[in-house]
Design a protein that fits this description.
2 helices, four-stranded antiparallel beta sheet, Tachylectin-2, Chain A, single chain, mainly beta, binds beta-D-mannopyranose
Length: about 325
C-alpha cells in the first residue's frame, strides 16, 4: 500500500515497537486487548487500564503497569474490573473503553467507561485510589451514550462531563457536555461540537478520544471522527480547543484529521481501519504527550507528540466551530 501521509505534517510519531501490547502478552486467555485508559502514578509508573475482550465477546478491564510506559509491563494476573451485571444490569454485555482522570479535590482517580447491555451503551463511573479496589458509582448517563471523560476540576461550582449521546433523529452523533454539583445529578446539557456532514472525514459520528488536556489556552481535546464508507467504518483523529472557563464553547476545531490508520496493525484486525485512543500521559517536560490507542480493535499502540505543536497546528488549521 502506498504511504498515506503525503506531505502532511506529522504531529504524532508511532513508536517503532508498536504494537506495544496485545493478547499474546496477557497472563490469561483473551481474544483482543485494546482501547486503554492511561495515567501516570505518583512514582512515575505508567498505568494502562486495558479493555480486554474474551472469546464470548464480553469485555472487562485489566491494569498493566510499566516503569517507562513502553515495555516491561506487569499485567494483573486476573481481570482488574469485571462487569457486575447482578448489581449493575447495564453491564450485562461488558465494560469498555475506560478514560482515567486524576481528581485532586477527590484525591482519587475517576474512571468513566462504557457499560453495555440490551439497553445499549451507557456511561458509568468508578472511583479508585489504587486500581485495586473500586467504588462503583454506576450509570451516570443513560443509553445510548459513550466516549465520556470528566474534567479534573470543577468549572465554577460544578463537575463537567464530556460525553457522546446518540439520537435516532439527528443526523450524526455529536459531543456534549453536562454539569453536576455531586457527580450524580447531571444537567445544563449542551452540544460542544457536531459531527460534520457529507464528504468530511468526521461526518458520521464524533466522540472524545482521550480525556481533555488542560493548557493555558484552553482544554485541548483529541477526538475521533468516524466516517461510514462502503468498506465499513473508518476511524481517524482530530483536534479541538475548548474554552477554559466555559468548556461548552469550542474555540477552534482542526479541519483535516491529524492521525489515521496507516500501519498494518491499524489497517487489519477484528475491526479494520480503527485508531482509538482512550488515554495519554505527559512527560516530565510538561509538553511531550504519549498517546495510547487501540489499533483495529485488536492491540494497543503508542504514538508521541508535543502539546505545544498540537496548539500551533490548531492556529494554522483550526476554525471556530460551526456548521460546514
Ligand atoms: C466504537 C467503540 C470502540 C471501538 C470502535 C471501532 O463505537 O465501540 O470501542 O473501538 O467503535 O469498532
Amino acid at each position: 500500500m502506498p504511504p498515506l501521509n503525503g506531505l502532511h505534517e506529522r504531529l504524532f510519531h508511532r513508536h517503532p515497537s508498536n504494537p506495544i501490547l496485545s493478547a499474546a502478552d496477557w497472563p490469561y486467555p483473551s481474544n483482543t486487548v485494546f482501547n486503554a485508559g492511561a495515567t501516570l502514578l505518583p512514582d512515575g509508573t505508567t498505568l494502562l487500564l486495558c479493555r480486554v475482550e474474551d472469546r464470548r465477546g464480553i469485555s472487562h478491564l485489566c491494569a498493566a503497569r510499566s516503569p517507562n510506559g513502553l515495555d516491561h509491563w506487569q499485567i494483573d494476573p486476573h481481570p482488574t474490573l469485571m462487569p457486575d451485571p447482578k448489581n449493575h444490569p447495564e453491564e450485562l454485555w461488558g465494560i469498555e473503553d475506560p478514560r482515567i482522570m486524576w481528581m485532586p479535590e477527590l484525591k482519587q482517580y475517576a474512571i468513566t467507561y462504557t457499560a453495555y447491555s440490551q439497553s445499549g451503551p451507557s456511561v458509568s463511573l468508578a472511583l479508585t485510589k489504587d486500581f485495586q479496589t473500586f467504588e462503583r458509582r454506576g450509570q451516570i448517563m443513560p443509553a445510548e451514550n459513550k466516549d465520556a471523560a470528566l474534567l479534573p476540576r470543577r468549572i465554577g461550582d460544578n463537575w463537567a462531563l464530556i460525553h457522546r449521546p446518540v439520537s435516532s433523529i439527528s443526523e450524526g452523533a455529536h459531543i456534549w457536555i453536562s454539569y453536576s454539583p455531586d457527580l450524580r445529578h447531571w444537567g445544563s446539557h449542551r452540544v460542544v461540537m457536531q459531527a460534520r456532514r457529507g464528504a468530511w472525514w468526521d461526518a458520521s459520528k464524533i466522540g472524545l478520544a482521550s480525556p481533555p488536556i488542560e493548557t493555558d489556552r484552553g482544554w485541548l481535546i483529541v477526538y475521533h471522527g468516524m466516517r461510514m464508507t462502503p468498506a465499513g467504518c473508518l476511524y481517524r483523529l482530530g483536534l479541538a480547543l475548548l474554552d477554559l472557563k466555559s468548556p461548552e464553547k469550542c474555540l477552534s476545531r482542526g479541519e483535516p484529521w491529524i492521525f489515521g490508520p496507516e500501519e498494518s496493525y491499524e489497517r487489519d484486525g477484528d475491526v479494520s481501519n480503527v485508531v482509538f485512543p482512550c488515554g495519554f500521559t505527559v512527560g516530565n517536560d510538561g509538553d511531550t504527550i504519549h498517546l495510547y490507542y487501540g489499533a483495529a480493535d485488536t492491540c494497543i499502540a503508542l504514538a508521541t507528540g508535543s502539546v505545544s505543536s498540537l496548539l500551533d497546528w490548531l492556529d494554522g488549521n483550526g476554525q471556530p466551530d460551526g456548521e460546514e
